[in-house]
Every structure is written in structure tokens, then in C-alpha cells.
Amino acid sequence: xxxxxxxxxxxxxxxxxxxxxxxxxxxxxxxxxxxxxxxxxxxxxxxxxxxxxxxxxxxxxxxxxxxxxxxxxxxxxxxxxxxxxxxxxxxxxxxxxxxxxxxxxxxxxxxxxxxxxxxxxxxxxxxxxxxxxxxxxxxxxxxxxxxxxxxxxxxxxxxxxxxxxxxxxxxxxxxxxxxxxxxxxxxxxxxxxxxxxxxxxxxxxxxxxxxxxxxxxxxxxxxxxxxxxxxxxxxxxxxxxxxxxxxxxxxxxxxxxxxxxxxxxxxxxxxxxxxxxxxxxxxxxxxxxxxxxxxxxxxxxxxxxxxxxxxxxxxxxxxxxxxxxxxxxxxxxxxxxxxxxxxxxxxxxxxxxxxxxxxxxxxxxxxxxxxxxxxxxxxxxxxxxxxxxxxxxxxxxxxxxxxxxxxxxxxxxxxxxxxxxxxxxxxxxxxxxxxxxxxxxxxx
Amino acid sequence: xxxxxxxxxxxxxxxxxxxxxxxxxxxxxxxxxxxxxxxxxxxxxxxxxxxxxxxxxxxxxxxxxxxxxxxxxxxxxxxxxxxxxxxxxxxxxxxxxxxxxxxxxxxxxxxxxxxxxx
Lengths: 444, 118
Fold this sequence. Notes:
A: about 450 residues, mainly alpha, B: 2 helices
């Protein structure tokens, strides 16, 4: 890309600009593309969600604006721009104004590290995964600001619930990706994707396997459990049903968004849908190989070896195919999110936090231990004092690791289900209601 | 060393600019008809009872405190995950002891009822 901009500016236009200007132009171009793509994803996702949920509820959904209602989100956007911007007199003006910006900016930053194809990587950072989750936790502060700054009881409750939920579910989410980091030994999303070639085993584990782009981590016991825990945590992080209690419309109106109107509300909405898209994308990348799929690697290697004229075509084809795989997986996970919304009722906040602390966190911790054993069984040898492992074949080591982690993870799952069933917090609904009505009405 | 973060900085500035721009634009495009009722806090159409910024249940703060403990644990485990091949058995033992201490604390918390919401 540097060469292209250099050619356009210096050769064709004859400006003779120095190198740093070219770099700056490149960065601004990449940022501009991302800032266009992200809202487009949001428009498409809102439309898809409304149509799919309508189908599940035996309705039609928006189908009047444009072909099959495809321009409905655009119409909604125009409507939001022309709505009155209401700032309540009692609110903390500056906190109220800054909250949507604090929520939206990190989400755009997260888009920058997501690899869309073999070469479609906006910013290749060797700390990509850590950056993604570090930045994602900033929006929690924005939600709290929105809740506090609005000076409204519904908003405050929503903001508090949002903050509690975001911080609580961040731990299982990060612990489940920690398992993948242990197995791969890198935080770069590009490298994590590159080892997911192969056929049912990653290239990291068994090097002799044919590279069909199907060595996804979800096919290992460690990856499977990490995927389940991560996706559940992602539902909570993205405030999707059944974890949408911060904006539970039947109890607290719209939570932290209650006092927002016009485009400030629109920014919260935008941030939420882009975040959902990103969480689906990260699920697809970490556990389902992202752009990896049959044919991509073959096209890509042809792009490197073919004649200079043909190589561009093959590289473009590889990227297009990879992008198609990536988007198909991402949209499938978004479909699952909508499906869950159509199928499940909302949890209470105590159930939500109990589930996190007493089930997900212990389970992901056990999974981290499993991941360590997996990495030891497959990658360690005489340098670590385990010379006997080197005598075994690659497949034998892989099989041993598979069986060991499968047993540990299954035992942990069954054990935790038992512990949570017998720990006495399973009161019946009637008892529970009586219990609650006897307590004085407090905010909780 | 910090070069990968230059595009991030550019993107950040652009994102903040766009957010502010959108808010300013919408406040200019929309009508401006304020009124005492409209600008009062929304409480489902009732007269607001008392201020909203007041004392809040300590339970939420407890969640935040538990989070900090676990977050620090995760912060320590990430570097370990990256270098644990080089550290070998000694590193494994150290990380195991670290995790065991944390798990003991977690079990204590659980038994003490710190994880109970009500």
C-alpha cells in the first residue's frame, strides 16, 4: 500500500512529498475505510436482527423501505439525526455529553486489529488480542458515565448493572482466550490464524497433516470449552439476551440510555452493534479459523509461486475467498445471538453474577490448566527435561493430549454442574418471590 | 518500537472527531423546543421522587473488588503464557503455586458467601 500511495503522489502528481507524509496518508486511508465499514456492518446487522427476530415471532419485520426493507436502517439513521437533542436540566452536562464518545471510540479502535483475510489486516500488532480486550473494557467506563451523568434512577441502575456485568464477564472471556494463548504462544491474531490450517488438528500440533484450512481450535477439547465459555461471556459483554439486564426494557426502561435522544442514542446503538459484530468476529477468528477454509491457503501459495502477472490474481482470489469464509462465520454467530434472543427469557442480576463467579470462572480456570497440559504434551521435549515425549510420534502425542484434556474438561464440567445444583441456591420461584417481597424495597 | 501504534492514534483521533461531529450535527439538525417537563428526569410520567445521585448498594462495589483481584491474576498469567516454553518446569511450578494461592482465596470467598448477591 505504501508503494501505491508513493506512486500516486510522487510519480503521477509529482508532489515530491517525504516518506512520513505517505505513511500518514496511508494511516488516514486505513482509518477512513474502517470508519466506513464499521457503521455499515451495524446497519446490516440491525436490519438482519429485525428480520430474523420477526420471522421467529411469526411477523414480517421491516419490508417497505427499499427492496425487502433493506434501506430501513438508513431511514432510521436519518430519523435519529433529525430528532431533538434533549439534555435534562438535572443531568451532569459534560459527563452526559462525553459518555457516548467514550463508548464509541474504543469500539472503533477494536475494529483495527481484526484480520479480514490473509492480507486484509488493517493493523498487524503483535499484541492484537490483548489490545482488543484492553480497549474493550474502556467502554464500561462510558456506560457508567452515561448512567451517572443522566441523573435518572433508571439510568443509574442500568449503568451500575452494565458495569458490574461487564467487569464480571470480562474475566471468563479473558481466561478462555488465555487457553488459546497458551496453546499458540502468541497474542498476534494473524499468527493465531496462521496455525489454524491443517485438518482437524492445528499446524502447531501435527506438522504432517494436509493444510486444508480446517485445523480450528474448536476441534480440540480445550478449544471447545474455551469457545463455549467465551461465547457465553461475549453475550454478556455485548449485552445480548439472556444477559441484557442493563437495558432490560420491561424493568428499567432503557437502562443507561434512558435520557439520551437523537444521535447520542444512535451512538450507543452503533457502539453496541459494532461490538456485537466484533465479538462474533473474534469468536470466529480464535476458535473457527477466521478466514481459514478449504482453498484459501492453496490460492495464497499459488499467488506466491505463480508468474508475476498471475500472482496478483491468485492473491486477490485468496483474499476474497478468505473474506467470504470470515464473514460467513461471523454472521453465523450473529445469527446464533439473534436466535438466543428469540428463544430465552432474561436472567436476574443475581443469577447472572452467580453463573459467572460459580460456574464460568472455575470452568475457565480448569481449562487454562488443560491448555497448559496440552502444550506440554505436544510441544515440550528434552530442553524441559521431558525427553521421553520426543520418542513418541506426533500423532501419539496429539492423541495423548486430546484424551487427557477431554477427561479433565468433562470432569470439571460435570463436577461444577453438581456443585451448583447442590449448593442450595436453587430455590423455587414461589419461595423466591415470597423471600423478595418480605425484604424492604431497595435498589438492587 | 511504538510504530504499530501510530495508525491506532490516527484512528483514535478520527473516531473521536466523528463521534463529536455526529453529536454536534444532530444537535443542529434537530428541532430545539425545550420545556420544563421535557427536561425533567424521566420516571415513567410520574413526578420524580428525590434525586438519583445518592447512596448505592455496596454489592456492586464488591463485584468491582473481586474483579480487580482476578484481573491482576490474568495480567500476570498473560506474560507467563507467552514465555512458558522457555521457562520450562520451574516456571510451571511457580505459575502453579500462584494459581493455587488464588484458588484458595477464591474458595474462601465462595464459602464466606462473598459471591452471594442477596
